[in-house]
Amino acid sequence: MNFSFLKQSLLALCAIASANLIYAQAVLPTSYDFDETIPDGWTEALQGGNFRYATGQAGTACRLDETGDYVEVYVADVPGTVSYYIKGQGNAVTNDTFNIQESANGTTWTNMRQLIGNQVDMAAYVQYNDQPAATTRYIRWYFKRKQSGKNISLDEITIAVPVPTDEQEIAVLFNGNAAPNSNSVVVGNQTSHTIRIENIGLADVLTVSNISFSGSAAADYSIASLSVPFDVNAQNYVDLTLNFTAGGNGSRTATMTIANNDFNGDETSYTLELLGIGGTYATEPTAQASSLNFTNVKSYKMNLSYSAASPAPENYIVLRKTGSAVTETPVDGTTYTPGDWIGGAKVFYVGEGTSFTPNNIIANTDYRYAVFSFNGPSGYENYLTTSPLAGDVTTPDGDIQNYYSGITAGNPNLLTLLKTTLSNGQNQIYYSNYGSTIIRDFVERDTTDGAKVVNCVYTNYAHIYTGNFNYDVISREHTYAHSWMDTWPDEEGLEYSDLHNLFPAHQNSANAVRSNLPLDEVVTVTSTFLEGTYGKNAAGQDVYEPRDEHKGDAARALFYMATRYNGTQGGNGNGNWGFPNPISFTTDYGQNQDVLKAWHWQDPPSNWEIARNDYIDSKQNNRNPFIDSVNFVCYINFLDMTYVANPGAIPCTVTPDAIGENNISELAVYPNPTSGDFGINISLKENENVLVRISDVAGKTVYERNENLKAGNNRLMIASNRFAKGVYLLQLVTENSVNTQKIVIK
Fold this sequence. Notes:
The chain has 746 residues and is mainly beta. It has 5 domains: 29-159, Galactose-binding domain-like (Jelly Rolls), CATH 2.60.120; 170-278, Immunoglobulin-like; 290-394, Immunoglobulins (Immunoglobulin-like, Sandwich), CATH 2.60.40; 414-643, no CATH class; 664-745, Immunoglobulin-like (Sandwich).
């Protein structure tokens, strides 16, 4: 057995952990290049999200950009040399502090290296090598103090196995895979397994003095032909056969203890938790979780928590449906990950925790959840499917509050009032932080096989990826093109990074194709990619047409940009900004506002867009008024940014039928006519209870409800499937007025 033993051992230790191994520690050697899914034992605690620099030492690199950000690894054994690359990003200042630290317990830390200010190279990646102590089990890269515009780019971390010494050192493999001390291995329902005990020392003998079993199913396990004590010579191993004979059905657990003379002393009592299964599946839990709670419920997010079952199971799985109760159940022996579907229900959480934050939340939506207890490792899961914990929550329909207090469409100073409100207290979320805000917090969704997906807004292309998002396929599209901005080619200003203007788009097949062309209806097609089209409009001009579901969103982003930055730097020479005309020497025409206004009404704000507006407000501290109050567009000429006093016919006309002091300053129904759900936008001067009544042409009331509305803008959504095709009369009845509007259901 004396053959290139060290090489064989290192190859075995490098083997990817199979389903037979369960642990939260990193098996040495370990590495993390920030290009793929985070490995076992590694943690990223980045306040801005698990965000990346597109260019690292190789591939992408980790971005640490706030005080307290860190990357940490918990290793299973004595670590060898730690190697990594660091580069500064941004502006160098002498008082920033970045520490590379080690710890025996994950609580008390000491520095292996400290880089202060200009000690971090800003021009190129520099490789560092550190040697942790033998007792170290935790290593972290920690941004202790950031007081400048400098960020840290971290990449290509490797932690080697220690260089062997003469002293005896134990290592254990289970069925050919590294089995770290104090971790679990899955025996399953197989009767025979190989335990390899290695001595990776160079000279001294490792002596195994005893192997014993303890725990509830200890009698189910034995070592064939065991004779102790026995020796393992340096650079050698001994193979043992672990026998498993289940004494009953379900989970059969025990602790295997290998007593030995390991030189370091920390592994002289080497233990493995054995997870055996009698029959087909683990033991079914006997209790479900209780007390399902929803907190911090917004149109774009919520927190979900529940009380642990008693007795506690090993894990929970949480399913979700929209609009109806979860009747689906998980199937025993099937392993699920967030994003998987079980019939019409989607998996949103799998784990031992009792709280999580689900993604893919939108406004005005009824979410139904069910929480199931289960036991067992992958392939042996046993789900308790009777009487799962269930609950539902409805997200709000936007969070406008009194943001537009004192602003009405009928005010000739509308443009000035809107710009002042939008710019007041606006935060800049930098363009480079788009991935750690919009993408991570709102856009990306879990999909099958543990992957995530982001869709191109123009074409509906689904970009599916594992690990962390980076801009290899999807880009940040400026709806109001960068070259249209007065600050072109500056990439630091507010308008360049404004989140209301940025959407994910396929770089090569959508963003680059659209370039800085106007958005319009394509009559003569030049090229298509899925649902996005490039070609000529009715006037023979080159234009780009996005998919129908994004047309209104794109129009409202353009309306917002023209309004928010109107006159910022003189615009078209008369102090106004608006849409450029011509766009350039080669594009001697501009953006058609009539097309955008038509799209605005054809594709009114969806629950997704309303939620996105709320999310951006939470980060950027301003809103898109054309989402909140759809009637505003009728009062603005976006070519020269002037007020339109008499916007014309419905849907732009506000027609109150007042019988007294009218508290309703604005009323709009959109889309109108409609073949789908429609919205009612109501602006009140003061808080008031309003009766919403819809009657048919014969005067019969077919729909009625009371709403306590607040001062400012309010939005109500009504399902059109309540009504047959025809003409209806909407009445909003307040204490002193009746306001009417005709609705056509097609």
